Amino acid sequence: MPCRPLAIATLAACLGLVACAAPPASVIDGDSGTEASDAAPPAIADASSSLDASRQTGGPDATTAQADASSAGPDAGRDWSQHPAIVQLDTTQDLWALGDVHGDYDRMTALLAAAGIAPVPAQPSAAQWSAGGAVLVCTGDLIDKWTQSLPVLAYLQALASSATASGGQVIVTMGNHEAEFLADPSGTKTADFVTELNAAGISPASVASGAHPLGQYLRALPFAARVNDWFFAHAGNTSGATLANLEASLRAGVDAYGYGAPILSDANSILEYKLDSPAPWWEVAGKDPATVLAQYATAVSATHIVEGHQPGSVTFSDGTKRAKGTLFQKFGEIFLIDVGMSRGVDDSAGALLHIQRNAATGKTTASVVLPSGASSVLWSN
């Protein structure tokens, strides 16, 4: 089910032409490269207790988190049938994945143009899809850290509409920055987005509450997506829940506590887990990491898990490392796609994950595509 563009006209009225700056090249790393770091998993009804009991999360307990989250108030009126917590889709077309954009419209559009997904438009609301029946998944954190969050949002809404008209699809999932803004627009982490809204004459409170069309768009974003056997979520960690129970828990949490719900805001949640708190979520004491990943992926009807959230360096328990700013995979089961592309981070100029399946041979290839247009294979089965 596509994410519906709700605020293109409103944003377009606030935005002028946006120039596209040519970014430098990014770095690619593979299974023998480096790591990434995230936090601990959320409390979900059917989480794998045998795995989670042995993990040291260091996060707040559920009782405290629920009490803290209650101040955000319930989210009244989200139509879960129209805006599901988890989008599910099966396709024979190419699949693309984009990590954290963090308000850098110039680098995002240059990257997507280099990949042949969409040419750089004259203005954000004029975005035109050129990737046919392909599917693009963006794993959240569209806002903050740079000065072009509004153009980014206007562009992705327009691109989604154009993709649908062309037989393709754009799926944008929520990141922790979007959830934190919706829960508390006065929070310090989303100050960059608030500054941008104020400069455009848009009330941050009206966006966070959903009174403004842009808020309606943000509040309708799914928290994860399953496309074929690939599962996408901002921070990846599902605590081993099944797809059905994870979706039910997300709905119940948001209905009861709004976008500050523990299932979104806890240090161990699907949007917040940090790979160094104290270790990647799939590294459980006494368990084989590849086996844990396989169990978690199977539970959500997938084989591979794709997450953004962190572009930094990580060292894994087997000694392999993920260098900062690199698109990285391990075991063919976990793919880290936040490469710090925003100039507010500047770990790289960006990179896309391109997933292709050969129907004749059954072979799947995952490649990295850079802003230069250069492509190299990251993983293949």
Give a written overview of the molecule.
This protein is α/β, with parallel strands linked by helices. It has a single domain (8-349), classed as Metallo-dependent phosphatases (Purple Acid Phosphatase, chain A, domain 2), CATH 3.60.21.10. It is built from 12 helices and 15 strands. It has helices at 8-14, 49-52, 62-69, 105-114, 149-165, 176-183, 191-199, 204-209, 213-219, 243-257, 262-265, 289-299, and strands at 27-28, 86-89, 95-98, 135-138, 169-172, 224-227, 230-233, 304-307, 314-315, 321-322, 326-330, 334-336, 352-357, 364-369, 375-380. The strands form 3 sheets. It has a 7-stranded mixed beta sheet, covered by helices on one side. It has a 6-stranded mixed beta sheet with strand order 5-4-3-13-14-15. Helix 1 (8-14) packs antiparallel against helix 5 (149-165). It is globular. The two termini are 28 Å apart.
Task: Summarize this entry quickly.
This protein has twelve helices and 15 strands. With 381 residues, the protein is of the alpha/beta class.
Q: CATH superfamily name?
A: Metallo-dependent phosphatases
- The radius of gyration is 19 Å
Summed up, the domain count is 1
- Measured between the Cα atoms of the first and last residue, the distance is 28 Å
Strand order in space, largest sheet: 1-11-12-8-7-6-2
Topology at a glance:
Elements: H1 8-14, E1 27-28, H2 49-52, H3 62-69, E2 86-89, E3 95-98, H4 105-114, E4 135-138, H5 149-165, E5 169-172, H6 176-183, H7 191-199, H8 204-209, H9 213-219, E6 224-227, E7 230-233, H10 243-257, H11 262-265, H12 289-299, E8 304-307, E9 314-315, E10 321-322, E11 326-330, E12 334-336, E13 352-357, E14 364-369, E15 375-380
Parallel strand pairs: 1-11, 2-6, 3-4, 4-5, 7-8, 8-12
Antiparallel strand pairs: 3-13, 6-7, 9-10, 11-12, 13-14, 14-15
Helix pairs in contact: 1-5
